[in-house]
Design a protein that fits this description.
- With 301 residues, this protein is α/β, with parallel strands linked by helices.
- It folds into two domains: 132 residues, Response regulator (Rossmann fold, 3-Layer(aba) Sandwich), CATH 3.40.50.2300; 151 residues, Alpha-Beta Plaits (2-Layer Sandwich), CATH 3.30.70.
- 48% of the residues lie in helices and 19% in strands.
- It is built from ten helices and ten strands.
- The strands form two sheets. Strands 2-1-3-4-5 form a five-stranded parallel sheet, with helices on both faces. Strands 7-8-6-9-10 form a five-stranded mixed sheet, with helices on both faces.
- Helix 2 runs parallel beside helix 3 and helix 7 packs across helix 8.
- The radius of gyration is 25 Å and the shape is elongated.
- It starts with a strand and ends in a 5-residue tail after the last strand.
Length: 301
């Protein structure tokens, strides 16, 4: 994955010096430059930035003002900022740290010190990213876990309600999965779960989400998708699973799934909990009617 740095300083000579030293140790694939905080903030809005090196005293938007702009965007919270300053005042540095700076380098800076501090911040960010990934994903399938799925659902539900758009939710369960575990063992069962996720991820679009809801149960969150569209997705996935040859100890295994679909609109769903219950009820009907089928909260028109 490409790592990017943003260098903000009103002096082109300083920007060039910082970039040249960083390029010598090949820490980054992408380099972005800005002459003040306003320009730097605009670059952050358009590009993925992993670390910022920012001067404090600049015409226009200063380094402190840039920190305030960055702090207004929650998605920028984990991006470290190393401030460049000619000030030796402790109070000056404390102010920056309180406003969101991660570290300081005093100008004129020693190249080795700059590189060392950048490496430290990149390592901290990498650890933070890893911890966040562990907190929101399922350890086996690497999909989102149930807790994070609920967070996503709340955000998407609010957005759909505000914009008067559709939001569909699919719950699916592997048919007779306990029998598979009892017959072939849990290692075989885990392999099937991973294969199921691969099929699910190939069956949705980039802005849609897969999550392990619990055990052999998975969920799909489909923003801006109406009921008919969600039913089409569910039926396509059901057919792909039914036709997939899952690796077995002696011969390929045939697996089927049951799915329940629910869609938010202004008329029929009142909350995230209601949306989940509608999908869960539909999944129960699919199982009761013989499994390997799709049911929904409303008739498919």
């Amino acid at each position: 994955m490409d790592i990017s740095v943003l260098i903000i300083d009103d002096s082109k000579a300083i920007r060039d010096t910082v970039r040249e030293h960083l390029q010598m140790v090949s820490l980054f694939e992408n380099y972005y430059e800005a002459g003040d905080g306003s320009e730097g903030f605009k670059i952050m809005l358009k590009n993925k930035i992993d670390i910022v090196i920012c001067d404090i005293v600049m015409p226009g938007i200063t380094g402190f003002q840039f920190l305030a702009l960055k702090g207004s965007k929650p998605e920028f919270e984990d991006i470290p900022v190393i401030m460049l300053t000619a000030e030796e005042s402790v109070d000056h540095k404390v102010r920056g740290l309180e406003q969101g700076a991660s570290d300081y380098v005093t100008k004129p800076f020693d190249p080795a010190e700059l590189i060392a501090r950048v490496k430290v911040q990149l390592k901290i960010k990498s650890l933070q990213d890893r911890l966040r990934e562990l907190a929101i994903t399922d350890g086996l399938t690497r999909t989102f876990n149930r807790r994070y799925l609920i967070e996503l659902m709340k955000k998407e539900f609010y957005r759909a309600k505000r914009n008067k758009t559709n939001l569909s939710f699919i719950l699916l369960d592997i048919d007779h999965f306990k029998r598979i575990n009892d017959t072939y063992g849990h290692q075989q069962g885990d392999s099937i779960l991973v294969d199921i996720v691969s099929i699910l991820e190939k069956g949705i679009r980039r802005h849609e989400h897969v999550a392990r809801y619990g055990g052999e149960e998975f969920a799909l969150l489909l923003p801006e998708t109406d009921l008919n569209g969600a039913l089409t997705v569910a039926n396509n996935i059901r057919k792909k699973v039914e036709g997939f040859k899952f690796a077995g100890q002696e011969k390929p295994l045939n697996i089927t799934i049951s799915l329940g679909v629910a869609t938010f609109s202004d008329k029929n769903i009142e909350s995230v909990d209601h949306l989940i219950k509608e999908a869960d009820d539909a999944l129960y009907r699919a199982k009761r009617k013989g499994r390997n089928r799709v049911e929904s909260g409303e008739p498919w028109k």
